[in-house]
Amino acid sequence: MTSLVRRGGGSTLQHRGKANAEEGKHEEEDTAQHDEEEEFHDSKDTRLTLMEEVLLLGLKEKEGYTSFWNDCISSGLRGCMIIELGLRGRIEVEKLGTRKKSLLNRKVLVKSEQVTGDVLLDEALNLIKTTKPPDTVPNWIELLSGETWNPFKLSFQMRQVRERLAKNLVEKGVLTTEKQNFVLFDMTTHPVVDAAAKQRTVKKVQDAVLTRWTNDPHRMNKRLLSLIYLAHASDVLENAFAPLSDEDYETAMKRVRELLDKDPDTESMKAGANETMWAVVAAFLK
């Protein structure tokens, strides 16, 4: 009888221990999200979203447009939206149950319906909020990009995202608007007028993998870590490393490869990790 009581008691304690650990993890996650949010809003420099920073890295400064050969930036910008909503505590991926699903198979859930004040983010949040049943991160990236074979889901595509982001940057004084003639057609372009804003973005990406390299992604600022992953997924990371010396370039690329070799499912289970961010990373690394 005694052994049965002890065994039951041990099981209860073990269960409570797991529950407390899980609760502690979620509290750390919420605290980390709050810190990220505060840091974003308290910045004295021009505040740029992840989408704007990735677009800025991809823009040719004088010409004011992204490379015609870049077919990755569209989905990369949608990934930025999902991470941005995750960092701001608006969405999350479903919690692990008894069946441990991989990040790629876990559904995106709305955590808070509070508007962000950013038109693109609020549009994406509304789409996620009104969709039943919930969908996974990889599927949402495809839906928001319009890369779906399902004609009934084409309405989920967010259109003219690059142009709308460029207009945001014009309003922030980072870009300007011009018309350029390309023989067969005229195109609206957005050359960089605030070179310092772009240089700050380039510099912080460079510093993250050189002078401030920590060798541990969980010691890096989540927004900055996301920027490195999404800049790579959008095929614009090379633009940030182009000014580097050959030696620094090799070091930077070696460290980026170390990040790309990380297992998102493993990293997402560590204390303070943002699971939504790692789910997006997993979607681009699959």
Key features of this structure:
mainly alpha; lipid-binding; 286 residues; 5% strand; 12 helices
Short description:
It holds the Pfam family GPP34. The protein has helices at residues 2-42, 50-58, 73-87, 119-130, 137-145, 161-171, 195-209, 222-233, 237-241, 246-260, 264-268, 275-285, and strands at residues 91-93, 108-110, 178-181, 186-189.
What does the model show?
- Strand 3 (178-181) and strand 4 (186-189) form a beta hairpin.
- The chain has helices at residues 2-42, 50-58, 73-87, 119-130, 137-145, 161-171, 195-209, 222-233, 237-241, 246-260, 264-268, 275-285; strands spanning 91-93, 108-110, 178-181, 186-189.
- With 286 residues, the protein is mainly alpha-helical.
- 56% of the residues lie in helices and 5% in strands.
- The protein has a two-stranded antiparallel sheet.
- The longest helix is centred in the first third of the chain and has 41 residues, at 2-42.
- It is a peripheral membrane protein.
- Its main location: Golgi.
Topology:
Elements: H1 2-42, H2 50-58, H3 73-87, E1 91-93, E2 108-110, H4 119-130, H5 137-145, H6 161-171, E3 178-181, E4 186-189, H7 195-209, H8 222-233, H9 237-241, H10 246-260, H11 264-268, H12 275-285
Antiparallel strand pairs: 1-2, 3-4
Helix pairs in contact: 2-3, 2-8, 3-4, 3-5, 3-8, 3-12, 8-12
Spatial strand order of the main sheet: 1-2
Spell the H/E element sequence: HHHEEHHHEEHHHHHH
Proportion of residues in helical segments: 55-70%
Describe the sheet with the most strands.
2 strands, antiparallel
Unreliable stretches? 1-19, 38-43
Strand-residue fraction? under 5%
Given the helix and strand composition, which structural class is it? mainly alpha
General shape: globular
- Give me the Rg, rounded: 21 Å
Specify the number of helices. Answer: 12
Q: What number is the mean pLDDT?
A: 86
| End-to-end C-alpha gap | 52 Å
